[in-house]
Design a protein that fits this description.
Layout (H helix, E strand, L loop, with lengths): L5 E5 L11 H15 L3 E7 L6 H6 L1 E10 L2 E12 L2 E7 L1 H4 L10 H15 L10 E5 L5 H7 L12 E6 L7 E3 L2 H6 L3 H6 L3 E2 L2 E3 H8 L2 E4 L2 H6 L10 H6 L4 E3 L27 H14 L9 E8 L5 H13 L3 E8 L1 H13 L4 E4 L4 H10 L2 E4 L9 H7 L3 E5 L2 H6 L13 E3 L4 H17 L1 H13 L5 H16 L1
Parallel strand pairs: 1-2, 1-6, 2-5, 6-7, 7-11, 11-12, 13-14, 13-16, 14-15, 16-17, 17-18
Antiparallel strand pairs: 3-4, 4-5, 8-10, 9-10
The chain binds adenosine-5'-diphosphate.
Protein backbone atom coordinates (compact mmCIF):
# COMPACT_ATOMS: atom_id res chain seq x y z
CA UNK A 1 0.00 0.00 0.00
CA UNK A 2 1.16 3.52 -0.79
CA UNK A 3 2.09 5.45 2.33
CA UNK A 4 0.53 8.79 1.40
CA UNK A 5 -3.25 8.52 1.55
CA UNK A 6 -4.91 10.84 -0.99
CA UNK A 7 -7.84 12.55 0.68
CA UNK A 8 -10.32 15.10 -0.54
CA UNK A 9 -11.67 16.96 2.48
CA UNK A 10 -15.11 18.42 1.73
CA UNK A 11 -16.75 21.03 3.92
CA UNK A 12 -19.25 23.85 3.53
CA UNK A 13 -17.07 26.24 5.52
CA UNK A 14 -13.36 26.54 6.25
CA UNK A 15 -11.26 29.39 7.59
CA UNK A 16 -10.01 31.74 6.23
CA UNK A 17 -12.62 31.57 3.46
CA UNK A 18 -15.84 31.16 5.42
CA UNK A 19 -16.56 30.59 9.10
CA UNK A 20 -19.77 30.50 11.07
CA UNK A 21 -18.55 28.26 13.91
CA UNK A 22 -16.31 25.40 14.91
CA UNK A 23 -16.67 23.53 11.61
CA UNK A 24 -14.97 26.47 9.89
CA UNK A 25 -12.05 26.29 12.32
CA UNK A 26 -11.71 22.52 11.96
CA UNK A 27 -11.96 22.39 8.17
CA UNK A 28 -9.45 25.24 7.98
CA UNK A 29 -6.90 23.65 10.28
CA UNK A 30 -7.23 19.84 10.18
CA UNK A 31 -6.25 19.51 6.48
CA UNK A 32 -3.08 21.53 7.17
CA UNK A 33 -2.24 19.22 10.07
CA UNK A 34 -2.90 16.16 7.88
CA UNK A 35 -0.51 17.54 5.28
CA UNK A 36 2.15 17.83 7.96
CA UNK A 37 1.35 14.29 9.09
CA UNK A 38 2.11 13.04 5.57
CA UNK A 39 -1.28 12.85 3.82
CA UNK A 40 -1.85 14.11 0.29
CA UNK A 41 -4.93 16.04 1.32
CA UNK A 42 -6.84 18.74 -0.53
CA UNK A 43 -9.78 20.86 0.56
CA UNK A 44 -12.96 21.53 -1.40
CA UNK A 45 -15.69 24.04 -0.51
CA UNK A 46 -18.18 26.36 -2.20
CA UNK A 47 -16.91 29.58 -3.77
CA UNK A 48 -18.96 31.93 -1.61
CA UNK A 49 -19.45 35.49 -2.78
CA UNK A 50 -18.20 36.69 0.60
CA UNK A 51 -14.74 35.11 0.29
CA UNK A 52 -12.15 37.89 0.64
CA UNK A 53 -11.03 39.46 -2.65
CA UNK A 54 -7.38 38.69 -1.92
CA UNK A 55 -8.20 34.97 -2.14
CA UNK A 56 -10.53 35.28 -5.11
CA UNK A 57 -7.78 37.04 -7.06
CA UNK A 58 -5.46 34.08 -6.49
CA UNK A 59 -7.92 31.49 -7.79
CA UNK A 60 -7.26 29.77 -11.10
CA UNK A 61 -9.85 28.20 -13.30
CA UNK A 62 -9.67 24.40 -13.46
CA UNK A 63 -12.81 23.51 -15.40
CA UNK A 64 -16.43 24.28 -16.05
CA UNK A 65 -19.25 22.02 -17.05
CA UNK A 66 -22.98 21.60 -16.69
CA UNK A 67 -24.26 19.52 -13.81
CA UNK A 68 -27.53 17.63 -13.79
CA UNK A 69 -29.40 17.72 -10.52
CA UNK A 70 -32.68 15.95 -11.15
CA UNK A 71 -34.22 17.96 -14.02
CA UNK A 72 -31.99 20.96 -13.37
CA UNK A 73 -29.07 21.58 -15.69
CA UNK A 74 -26.70 23.98 -13.92
CA UNK A 75 -23.40 25.71 -14.61
CA UNK A 76 -20.59 24.50 -12.36
CA UNK A 77 -17.09 25.94 -12.23
CA UNK A 78 -14.09 24.51 -10.40
CA UNK A 79 -11.37 26.89 -9.26
CA UNK A 80 -8.23 26.35 -7.26
CA UNK A 81 -5.66 28.16 -5.19
CA UNK A 82 -2.90 27.28 -2.78
CA UNK A 83 -3.16 28.31 0.83
CA UNK A 84 0.40 27.79 1.97
CA UNK A 85 1.03 24.15 1.00
CA UNK A 86 -2.65 23.25 0.95
CA UNK A 87 -4.40 22.96 -2.42
CA UNK A 88 -7.97 24.24 -2.16
CA UNK A 89 -10.76 23.77 -4.70
CA UNK A 90 -13.86 25.89 -4.95
CA UNK A 91 -17.18 24.97 -6.51
CA UNK A 92 -18.49 27.98 -8.38
CA UNK A 93 -22.14 28.70 -9.05
CA UNK A 94 -23.24 32.26 -8.37
CA UNK A 95 -26.91 31.43 -8.06
CA UNK A 96 -26.27 29.10 -5.11
CA UNK A 97 -23.21 30.62 -3.49
CA UNK A 98 -23.09 34.34 -4.22
CA UNK A 99 -25.11 35.21 -1.15
CA UNK A 100 -24.46 37.05 2.09
CA UNK A 101 -24.33 34.00 4.36
CA UNK A 102 -23.37 30.35 4.17
CA UNK A 103 -26.69 28.96 5.42
CA UNK A 104 -30.19 29.93 6.36
CA UNK A 105 -31.90 30.00 2.96
CA UNK A 106 -35.09 28.26 1.92
CA UNK A 107 -33.22 26.29 -0.73
CA UNK A 108 -30.32 25.08 1.47
CA UNK A 109 -31.28 21.47 0.68
CA UNK A 110 -30.83 22.13 -3.02
CA UNK A 111 -27.63 24.15 -2.47
CA UNK A 112 -25.94 21.35 -0.52
CA UNK A 113 -27.17 18.77 -3.05
CA UNK A 114 -25.60 20.81 -5.82
CA UNK A 115 -22.34 21.13 -3.90
CA UNK A 116 -22.22 17.42 -3.08
CA UNK A 117 -22.82 16.34 -6.65
CA UNK A 118 -20.38 18.94 -7.94
CA UNK A 119 -17.64 17.56 -5.68
CA UNK A 120 -18.05 14.11 -7.25
CA UNK A 121 -18.31 15.48 -10.77
CA UNK A 122 -15.25 17.72 -10.29
CA UNK A 123 -13.11 14.58 -9.79
CA UNK A 124 -13.43 13.94 -13.54
CA UNK A 125 -11.82 17.30 -14.30
CA UNK A 126 -9.09 17.51 -11.67
CA UNK A 127 -6.28 15.85 -13.55
CA UNK A 128 -3.43 15.59 -11.07
CA UNK A 129 -5.29 14.21 -8.07
CA UNK A 130 -7.30 11.01 -7.60
CA UNK A 131 -8.48 10.82 -4.02
CA UNK A 132 -8.91 7.39 -2.51
CA UNK A 133 -10.84 8.79 0.42
CA UNK A 134 -13.56 11.42 0.52
CA UNK A 135 -13.70 12.91 3.99
CA UNK A 136 -17.09 14.61 4.40
CA UNK A 137 -18.25 16.84 7.21
CA UNK A 138 -21.76 17.40 8.60
CA UNK A 139 -25.07 17.29 6.79
CA UNK A 140 -24.06 19.75 4.05
CA UNK A 141 -21.78 17.09 2.60
CA UNK A 142 -23.86 14.07 3.59
CA UNK A 143 -25.07 13.57 0.04
CA UNK A 144 -21.53 12.91 -1.20
CA UNK A 145 -21.44 9.31 0.08
CA UNK A 146 -25.13 8.95 -0.84
CA UNK A 147 -24.56 9.94 -4.48
CA UNK A 148 -21.29 7.97 -4.61
CA UNK A 149 -23.09 4.77 -3.62
CA UNK A 150 -26.05 5.38 -5.95
CA UNK A 151 -25.62 7.61 -8.98
CA UNK A 152 -21.86 7.00 -9.27
CA UNK A 153 -21.89 3.28 -8.41
CA UNK A 154 -20.35 1.16 -11.15
CA UNK A 155 -18.42 4.02 -12.80
CA UNK A 156 -14.82 2.83 -12.87
CA UNK A 157 -13.27 6.18 -11.87
CA UNK A 158 -15.18 6.01 -8.60
CA UNK A 159 -14.59 2.35 -7.86
CA UNK A 160 -12.88 1.72 -4.57
CA UNK A 161 -13.20 5.29 -3.27
CA UNK A 162 -13.80 5.14 0.49
CA UNK A 163 -15.74 7.61 2.57
CA UNK A 164 -15.22 9.01 6.04
CA UNK A 165 -18.06 11.02 7.49
CA UNK A 166 -17.50 13.28 10.50
CA UNK A 167 -20.37 14.46 12.66
CA UNK A 168 -19.54 17.89 14.04
CA UNK A 169 -23.06 18.55 15.24
CA UNK A 170 -25.85 16.00 15.13
CA UNK A 171 -28.52 18.59 15.77
CA UNK A 172 -28.44 19.63 12.12
CA UNK A 173 -29.44 16.80 9.80
CA UNK A 174 -30.93 18.25 6.63
CA UNK A 175 -34.54 17.10 7.00
CA UNK A 176 -36.90 17.76 4.09
CA UNK A 177 -40.23 16.62 2.68
CA UNK A 178 -39.89 13.39 0.76
CA UNK A 179 -40.85 14.94 -2.58
CA UNK A 180 -37.37 16.50 -2.61
CA UNK A 181 -35.85 13.04 -3.11
CA UNK A 182 -36.77 12.73 -6.77
CA UNK A 183 -37.46 16.36 -7.55
CA UNK A 184 -34.13 17.77 -6.31
CA UNK A 185 -31.76 14.91 -5.51
CA UNK A 186 -32.73 12.82 -8.50
CA UNK A 187 -32.85 9.66 -6.38
CA UNK A 188 -35.62 7.16 -6.66
CA UNK A 189 -37.54 6.44 -3.49
CA UNK A 190 -36.44 2.83 -3.25
CA UNK A 191 -32.79 3.87 -3.38
CA UNK A 192 -33.32 6.52 -0.71
CA UNK A 193 -35.19 4.09 1.51
CA UNK A 194 -32.47 1.49 1.04
CA UNK A 195 -29.84 4.04 2.09
CA UNK A 196 -31.71 4.79 5.32
CA UNK A 197 -32.77 8.29 4.31
CA UNK A 198 -36.50 7.99 4.88
CA UNK A 199 -37.60 8.65 8.42
CA UNK A 200 -40.98 9.80 9.72
CA UNK A 201 -42.27 10.90 6.30
CA UNK A 202 -39.17 12.96 5.65
CA UNK A 203 -35.96 12.55 3.69
CA UNK A 204 -32.98 12.99 6.00
CA UNK A 205 -29.62 13.73 4.34
CA UNK A 206 -27.51 13.01 7.41
CA UNK A 207 -29.01 9.58 7.96
CA UNK A 208 -28.03 8.75 4.38
CA UNK A 209 -24.39 9.51 5.18
CA UNK A 210 -24.53 7.61 8.46
CA UNK A 211 -25.78 4.51 6.66
CA UNK A 212 -23.58 4.66 3.54
CA UNK A 213 -20.18 5.97 4.72
CA UNK A 214 -17.42 3.45 5.36
CA UNK A 215 -16.32 5.06 8.60
CA UNK A 216 -18.07 7.46 10.96
CA UNK A 217 -16.23 9.79 13.24
CA UNK A 218 -17.20 12.48 15.65
CA UNK A 219 -15.22 15.16 17.33
CA UNK A 220 -14.63 13.81 20.84
CA UNK A 221 -14.56 10.39 22.50
CA UNK A 222 -17.29 11.37 24.97
CA UNK A 223 -19.64 12.62 22.25
CA UNK A 224 -19.08 9.33 20.37
CA UNK A 225 -20.47 7.56 23.45
CA UNK A 226 -23.22 10.08 24.04
CA UNK A 227 -24.70 9.89 20.54
CA UNK A 228 -25.42 6.22 21.09
CA UNK A 229 -27.97 7.24 23.72
CA UNK A 230 -31.48 8.60 23.27
CA UNK A 231 -30.74 11.91 25.04
CA UNK A 232 -27.93 12.95 22.69
CA UNK A 233 -28.61 10.71 19.70
CA UNK A 234 -31.10 13.04 17.96
CA UNK A 235 -33.08 9.98 16.89
CA UNK A 236 -30.06 8.48 15.11
CA UNK A 237 -28.80 6.53 18.13
CA UNK A 238 -29.94 3.23 16.60
CA UNK A 239 -27.69 3.77 13.59
CA UNK A 240 -24.72 4.63 15.81
CA UNK A 241 -25.36 1.62 17.99
CA UNK A 242 -25.56 -0.70 15.02
CA UNK A 243 -22.32 0.80 13.65
CA UNK A 244 -20.34 1.05 16.89
CA UNK A 245 -17.43 -0.78 15.33
CA UNK A 246 -17.16 1.88 12.61
CA UNK A 247 -17.59 4.86 14.93
CA UNK A 248 -14.57 6.77 16.26
CA UNK A 249 -14.36 9.79 18.55
CA UNK A 250 -11.33 11.96 17.84
CA UNK A 251 -10.94 15.19 19.78
CA UNK A 252 -10.55 18.33 17.67
CA UNK A 253 -7.48 20.47 18.00
CA UNK A 254 -7.04 24.18 17.38
CA UNK A 255 -4.65 26.07 15.15
CA UNK A 256 -2.09 27.02 17.78
CA UNK A 257 -0.41 29.45 15.40
CA UNK A 258 -3.60 31.36 14.77
CA UNK A 259 -4.40 31.40 18.48
CA UNK A 260 -1.10 32.44 20.00
CA UNK A 261 -1.12 35.21 22.62
CA UNK A 262 2.49 36.06 21.77
CA UNK A 263 1.86 36.81 18.10
CA UNK A 264 -1.89 37.47 17.83
CA UNK A 265 -2.28 40.84 16.08
CA UNK A 266 -5.84 41.25 17.35
CA UNK A 267 -4.78 41.72 20.96
CA UNK A 268 -4.14 44.99 22.78
CA UNK A 269 -0.84 43.53 24.03
CA UNK A 270 1.01 40.23 23.57
CA UNK A 271 1.73 37.92 26.48
CA UNK A 272 2.98 34.46 27.34
CA UNK A 273 2.79 31.98 30.20
CA UNK A 274 6.15 33.27 31.41
CA UNK A 275 5.05 36.90 31.44
CA UNK A 276 1.36 37.52 31.98
CA UNK A 277 1.59 41.29 32.36
CA UNK A 278 0.17 41.68 28.83
CA UNK A 279 -2.92 39.71 29.85
CA UNK A 280 -3.65 42.33 32.50
CA UNK A 281 -3.23 45.06 29.88
CA UNK A 282 -5.73 43.29 27.65
CA UNK A 283 -8.21 43.14 30.52
CA UNK A 284 -7.91 46.84 31.34
CA UNK A 285 -8.09 47.84 27.67
CA UNK A 286 -11.22 45.75 27.07
CA UNK A 287 -12.88 47.10 30.21
CA UNK A 288 -12.13 50.63 28.96
CA UNK A 289 -13.32 49.92 25.41
CA UNK A 290 -16.61 48.47 26.65
CA UNK A 291 -17.29 51.07 29.35
CA UNK A 292 -16.93 48.55 32.19
CA UNK A 293 -15.40 49.60 35.47
CA UNK A 294 -11.64 49.52 34.96
CA UNK A 295 -10.23 47.34 37.66
CA UNK A 296 -7.87 44.39 37.17
CA UNK A 297 -9.14 42.69 40.33
CA UNK A 298 -12.77 42.34 39.26
CA UNK A 299 -13.28 38.82 37.85
CA UNK A 300 -14.03 39.24 34.14
CA UNK A 301 -16.18 36.47 32.65
CA UNK A 302 -16.66 35.96 28.92
CA UNK A 303 -19.00 34.11 26.60
CA UNK A 304 -18.15 33.71 22.89
CA UNK A 305 -20.88 31.70 21.32
CA UNK A 306 -23.66 31.14 18.90
CA UNK A 307 -26.67 32.16 20.95
CA UNK A 308 -28.70 28.96 20.78
CA UNK A 309 -30.23 26.54 23.23
CA UNK A 310 -27.33 24.11 22.68
CA UNK A 311 -24.93 26.46 24.43
CA UNK A 312 -26.67 26.26 27.80
CA UNK A 313 -27.84 29.85 27.66
CA UNK A 314 -31.09 29.11 29.46
CA UNK A 315 -28.98 28.32 32.52
CA UNK A 316 -26.98 31.50 32.18
CA UNK A 317 -29.98 33.75 31.60
CA UNK A 318 -31.70 32.23 34.63
CA UNK A 319 -28.87 33.18 36.98
CA UNK A 320 -27.72 36.35 35.23
CA UNK A 321 -28.91 38.84 37.85
CA UNK A 322 -27.52 36.77 40.72
CA UNK A 323 -24.23 36.35 38.92
CA UNK A 324 -23.81 40.06 38.26
CA UNK A 325 -24.76 40.58 41.92
CA UNK A 326 -21.61 38.64 42.86
CA UNK A 327 -19.55 41.64 41.81
CA UNK A 328 -18.19 40.12 38.61
CA UNK A 329 -18.19 41.51 35.08
CA UNK A 330 -19.58 39.64 32.07
CA UNK A 331 -18.96 40.20 28.38
CA UNK A 332 -21.12 38.32 25.90
CA UNK A 333 -20.09 38.12 22.24
CA UNK A 334 -22.62 36.25 20.17
CA UNK A 335 -25.33 36.16 17.62
CA UNK A 336 -28.36 33.93 17.39
CA UNK A 337 -31.82 33.50 18.88
CA UNK A 338 -33.55 36.76 19.57
CA UNK A 339 -34.71 35.73 23.04
CA UNK A 340 -31.10 35.32 24.22
CA UNK A 341 -29.91 38.43 22.40
CA UNK A 342 -32.63 40.45 24.14
CA UNK A 343 -31.99 38.97 27.60
CA UNK A 344 -28.30 39.84 27.37
CA UNK A 345 -29.00 43.29 25.94
CA UNK A 346 -31.44 44.22 28.67
CA UNK A 347 -29.16 43.03 31.46
CA UNK A 348 -26.26 44.97 29.96
CA UNK A 349 -28.45 48.07 29.75
CA UNK A 350 -29.36 47.69 33.42
CA UNK A 351 -25.75 47.26 34.59
CA UNK A 352 -23.50 48.90 31.97
CA UNK A 353 -20.42 49.00 34.20
CA UNK A 354 -20.80 45.25 34.91
CA UNK A 355 -21.95 43.74 31.67
CA UNK A 356 -21.52 44.25 27.93
CA UNK A 357 -23.60 42.49 25.27
CA UNK A 358 -21.87 42.48 21.90
CA UNK A 359 -24.52 41.06 19.62
CA UNK A 360 -22.42 40.46 16.55
CA UNK A 361 -20.01 37.99 14.95
CA UNK A 362 -16.57 39.53 15.14
CA UNK A 363 -13.46 37.37 14.93
CA UNK A 364 -10.87 40.00 16.02
CA UNK A 365 -13.07 40.99 18.96
CA UNK A 366 -13.39 37.33 19.99
CA UNK A 367 -9.59 37.14 20.29
CA UNK A 368 -9.62 40.23 22.53
CA UNK A 369 -12.13 38.51 24.80
CA UNK A 370 -10.14 35.30 24.98
CA UNK A 371 -7.09 37.32 26.00
CA UNK A 372 -8.76 39.73 28.40
CA UNK A 373 -11.11 37.51 30.39
CA UNK A 374 -10.33 35.52 33.49
CA UNK A 375 -12.99 32.88 32.79
CA UNK A 376 -14.86 31.68 29.74
CA UNK A 377 -18.34 30.19 30.15
CA UNK A 378 -19.34 27.09 28.19
CA UNK A 379 -22.31 25.59 30.07
CA UNK A 380 -23.58 23.66 27.04
CA UNK A 381 -26.57 21.35 26.97
CA UNK A 382 -24.52 19.27 24.57
CA UNK A 383 -21.16 20.00 22.98
CA UNK A 384 -19.70 17.64 20.36
CA UNK A 385 -16.23 19.06 20.94
CA UNK A 386 -16.25 22.80 21.56
CA UNK A 387 -13.32 24.96 20.66
CA UNK A 388 -13.93 28.01 22.81
CA UNK A 389 -12.72 26.26 25.96
CA UNK A 390 -9.47 25.24 24.22
CA UNK A 391 -8.89 28.67 22.71
CA UNK A 392 -9.58 30.26 26.10
CA UNK A 393 -7.02 28.03 27.83
CA UNK A 394 -4.42 28.96 25.23
CA UNK A 395 -4.89 32.58 26.38
CA UNK A 396 -4.72 31.71 30.07
CA UNK A 397 -8.49 32.09 30.53
CA UNK A 398 -10.02 29.33 32.62
CA UNK A 399 -13.10 27.62 31.19
CA UNK A 400 -16.20 26.95 33.27
CA UNK A 401 -18.00 24.13 31.50
CA UNK A 402 -20.68 21.51 31.79
CA UNK A 403 -19.29 17.98 31.69
CA UNK A 404 -20.50 16.90 28.28
CA UNK A 405 -18.88 15.90 24.97
CA UNK A 406 -15.53 17.46 24.22
CA UNK A 407 -15.83 19.79 27.22
CA UNK A 408 -15.48 16.73 29.44
CA UNK A 409 -12.55 15.49 27.36
CA UNK A 410 -10.58 18.73 27.40
CA UNK A 411 -11.19 20.43 30.75
CA UNK A 412 -9.70 19.02 33.95
CA UNK A 413 -11.75 20.40 36.85
CA UNK A 414 -10.03 22.16 39.72
CA UNK A 415 -9.21 19.91 42.63
CA UNK A 416 -8.87 22.01 45.76
CA UNK A 417 -6.89 19.31 47.54
CA UNK A 418 -4.19 18.82 44.94
CA UNK A 419 -4.40 22.15 43.06
CA UNK A 420 -4.72 20.12 39.87
CA UNK A 421 -6.90 21.33 36.99
CA UNK A 422 -7.22 23.80 34.17
CA UNK A 423 -10.82 24.93 34.64
CA UNK A 424 -14.08 24.32 36.47
CA UNK A 425 -16.96 22.02 35.63
CA UNK A 426 -20.38 20.85 36.73
CA UNK A 427 -22.37 17.78 35.75
CA UNK A 428 -26.10 18.43 35.71
CA UNK A 429 -27.98 20.72 33.39
CA UNK A 430 -29.09 22.92 36.24
CA UNK A 431 -28.82 26.69 36.55
CA UNK A 432 -27.84 26.66 40.20
CA UNK A 433 -25.11 24.11 39.62
CA UNK A 434 -23.70 26.58 37.13
CA UNK A 435 -24.06 29.41 39.63
CA UNK A 436 -22.43 27.48 42.47
CA UNK A 437 -19.57 26.44 40.21
CA UNK A 438 -19.09 30.05 39.16
CA UNK A 439 -19.18 31.18 42.79
CA UNK A 440 -16.50 28.60 43.63
CA UNK A 441 -14.38 29.77 40.72
CA UNK A 442 -14.75 33.42 41.74
CA UNK A 443 -13.80 32.52 45.29
CA UNK A 444 -10.60 30.79 44.14
CA UNK A 445 -9.85 33.77 41.90
CA UNK A 446 -10.24 36.22 44.80
CA UNK A 447 -8.90 34.24 47.72
CA UNK A 448 -6.40 31.74 46.42
CA UNK A 449 -4.24 33.57 43.93
CA UNK A 450 -1.54 30.89 43.98
CA UNK A 451 -4.02 28.15 43.01
CA UNK A 452 -5.43 30.37 40.26
CA UNK A 453 -1.98 31.16 38.90
CA UNK A 454 -1.14 27.44 38.90
CA UNK A 455 -4.27 26.64 36.90
CA UNK A 456 -3.52 29.38 34.40
CA UNK A 457 -0.11 27.77 33.88
CA UNK A 458 -1.73 24.33 33.50
CA UNK A 459 -4.20 25.71 30.97
CA UNK A 460 -1.55 27.45 28.90
CA UNK A 461 0.67 24.36 28.94
CA UNK A 462 -2.08 22.02 27.71
CA UNK A 463 -1.42 20.76 24.19
CA UNK A 464 -4.48 21.35 22.02
CA UNK A 465 -2.52 21.38 18.77
CA UNK A 466 -3.73 19.15 15.95
CA UNK A 467 -0.67 16.88 15.99
CA UNK A 468 -2.14 14.12 18.18
CA UNK A 469 -5.55 14.10 16.51
CA UNK A 470 -4.12 14.29 12.99
CA UNK A 471 -2.09 11.16 13.78
CA UNK A 472 -5.32 9.42 14.82
CA UNK A 473 -7.03 10.37 11.55
CA UNK A 474 -3.98 9.10 9.64
CA UNK A 475 -4.20 5.77 11.43
CA UNK A 476 -7.88 5.58 10.51
CA UNK A 477 -7.28 6.42 6.83
CA UNK A 478 -4.57 3.78 6.60
CA UNK A 479 -6.76 1.15 8.23
CA UNK A 480 -9.58 2.02 5.83
CA UNK A 481 -7.37 1.75 2.78
CA UNK A 482 -6.12 -1.65 3.91
CA UNK A 483 -9.63 -2.96 4.49
P1 LIG B 1 -19.93 25.77 17.42
O1 LIG B 1 -19.22 25.18 16.25
O2 LIG B 1 -20.97 24.89 18.01
O3 LIG B 1 -20.46 27.14 17.15
P2 LIG B 1 -17.31 25.74 18.73
O4 LIG B 1 -16.92 26.02 20.14
O5 LIG B 1 -16.89 24.43 18.17
O6 LIG B 1 -18.88 25.96 18.63
O7 LIG B 1 -16.69 26.85 17.78
C1 LIG B 1 -17.09 28.17 17.84
C2 LIG B 1 -16.09 29.02 17.06
O8 LIG B 1 -16.76 30.20 16.59
C3 LIG B 1 -14.95 29.50 17.91
O9 LIG B 1 -13.82 29.73 17.09
C4 LIG B 1 -15.48 30.84 18.45
O10 LIG B 1 -14.46 31.71 18.83
C5 LIG B 1 -16.22 31.34 17.24
N1 LIG B 1 -17.33 32.24 17.54
C6 LIG B 1 -18.56 31.93 18.04
N2 LIG B 1 -19.33 33.03 18.15
C7 LIG B 1 -18.58 34.06 17.72
C8 LIG B 1 -18.81 35.47 17.58
N3 LIG B 1 -19.98 36.02 17.91
N4 LIG B 1 -17.82 36.24 17.08
C9 LIG B 1 -16.63 35.67 16.74
N5 LIG B 1 -16.35 34.36 16.85
C10 LIG B 1 -17.30 33.56 17.32
Amino acid sequence: MKTKPEILFAAFEATPFMKTGGLGDVAGSLPKALLSAGADVRLILPKFGTIAEKYKKKMEHVADFYLDLSWRHQYCGVETMKLGRLTCYFIDNEFYFKRGRAYGYGDDGERVAFFSKAVLEALKYIQDFRPRILHCNDWHTALIPVFLRSQYAGISRYDGIKTVFTVHNLKFQGIYPQWLTGEVLGLDSEQARHMGMFYDDTVNFLRGALCTSDVLTTVSPTYAEEICTAFYGERAQDIFNSRRGDLYGILNGIDVKQYDPMTDKNLFAPFSAADLSGKRENKLALQRQLGLEEDPDIPLLGLVSRLTEQKGLDLLVWILAELIGEGVQLVVLGLGDEKYENSFRSMAAAAPDRMAALITFDEPLSHKLYAACDMMLVPSLFEPCGLTQMIAMRYGTLPVVRETGGLKDSVIPYNKYTGEGNGFSFANYNAHELLFTLKDAVQVYRENKAAWAGMVQNAMAADFSWAVSAAKYMELYRKLLQA
